[in-house]
Amino acid sequence: xxxxxxxxxxxxxxxxxxxxxxxxxxxxxxxxxxxxxxxxxxxxxxxxxxxxxxxxxxxxxxxxxxxxxxxxxxxxxxxxxxxxxxxxxxxxxxxxxxxxxxxxxxxxxxxxxxxxxxxxxxxxxxxxxxxxxxxxxxxxxxxxxxxxxxxxxxxxxxxxxxxxxxxxxxxxxxxxxxxxxxxxxxxxxxxxxxxxxxxxxxxxxx
Length: 206
Description:
Elements: H1 3-19, H2 23-41, E1 44-45, E2 54-55, H3 57-68, H4 72-86, H5 98-101, H6 106-125, H7 132-146, H8 148-162, H9 169-176, H10 181-198
Antiparallel strand pairs: 1-2
């Protein structure tokens, strides 16, 4: 067996093993991915003109669906949101609580769940989606559309209700999207490279 064939067989074995794990082990993996998201959330840069910081957690979100699959990637982000609301200080800036999720960045966390579900579904279901350009396109869609949409929606509502500011769409984009696009593209490319390197080219099922 050639080296390339051995690498591909190892990829297949890992993902086939993941599909057949017991519920407690799947929960443990989901908790581990949630913890990684919380850790990367602390890698942040606070921009002076917006309440939304630049963080590293999107990288973990994009990988969650690929690594854990079409349901468990989303569940891991649900665990991240749920335990954060319950008091685990792993939102950016070591924050936690229901009030944080209701704040200016809470919508992005809802987007994390949707993005992980989206990526997990496609990469688990369609072998062709694991090609680099295909998975890169999915990463861009998840990062720049699925996460941004609820994030911008809640940011606009928060600015209106909490700050009394009625912002236009262009102002909202300047606050909650445009400053982060370059970083999110970089994280999407990195996540796509990792995803392409670890996913097998064949169907894996229990």
